[in-house]
Amino acid sequence: MNSALARAGSRDNHLVATQTTDRGLLRAFLEEDRLYAAYALCDLDEREFRHTRWGVALDGERPVAAVLEHAGTLPQPVFVMGEPEGIEAVLREVIRPRLAFMALRTEAVLAVGRLYRLDSGAELLRLWVDRASFRPYPGLTSRLLPAESGDLNRLYDMGFASWLPPSAIADGVYHGVRIHGLLVAAAGTHVVGREARLAVVGNVLTHRDYRGRGLAKTTTSAVTLELLRACDQVVLNVRADNVSAIAAYRALGYEEYARFEERLVHRRGSPWDGMMAPLRRLFTSHKEP
Q1: Phi, psi (5° rounding) for residue 161?
Q2: Which of 20, 16, 69, 4 is nearest to 40 (CA)?
Q3: CATH topology of domain 5-124+260-283
Q4: C-alpha distances in angstroms, 228 versus 48, 124, 145, 173, 187?
Q5: Over the stretch 101-156, which tens digit does the pLDDT of each residue have?
Q6: Cβ–Cβ under 8 Å, residues 55 and 95
Q7: Distance (Å, rounded) from C-alpha 189 to C-alpha 9?
Q8: How confident is the model at residue 9 (pLDDT cuts 50, 70, 90)?
Q9: Largest separation between any pair of C-alpha atoms in the chain
Q10: Intrachain domains 5-124+260-283 and 134-253 with the same fold
Q11: What is the CB-side half-sphere exposure of residue 207 using CA atoms within 13 A?
């Protein structure tokens, strides 16, 4: 076993769940499902990796599951991939968030549900594009600068709460459309993996007064075009019920790769889960899986 793996692990039948900082081992495993693991592969870049914690389940020397947890205040994103038994072992013994936003394929829901209570969540599509399939959409945009973060956040506040620091714009790729000096549409990136040559498009929004003019398509096209100069593939997520957005992305050449769910999950039996129970009974009526 590689020395970068933590010595303390737990055995689940034939599996060993352990923490790891071995980026080579993680990259090799994640590359087996590259487009689904795009976020996680980008997080292996040194700048992002120091803000993450990883666990793997090993069958002998072979990784069969990986779990990624981001640092920061709860709830943070958690990514899981691999065999359900391995995912469960890692979440039980190594990566144990009390509260998290978790991206889950259907086959992992039951395993995660043995350790977490899962709130209802939206079905998402993972779409992807490369240079061969990309179809640019004409339109005039401008590359946004870090100094324009205030304008960008004001736009995002029209549709959802957001606080985007100037550094996020400097490290990513953002394009916008201005009308009479007002920023009315923008698209950008969640993360860019320079080592993996992958990028994730996100933060696409058009001011409600300017929708229906193709501006989301224009800005997404400009961001994608720039990213594909250095990346082999670009991916994005979209709600499965957002028909107009899916049509816009397909017009740019994006194709569906996978479907998954994004759920808010609560560790069963944790103090946090106990404190939230009265609020859940008051405000929700969904059934857990």
Answers
A1: -65, 140
A2: 69
A3: Aminopeptidase (3.40.630)
A4: 21, 23, 19, 11, 15
A5: 999 999 999 999 999 999 999 999 999 999 999 999 999 999 999 999 999 999 99
A6: yes
A7: 36
A8: very low
A9: 65
A10: yes
A11: 15
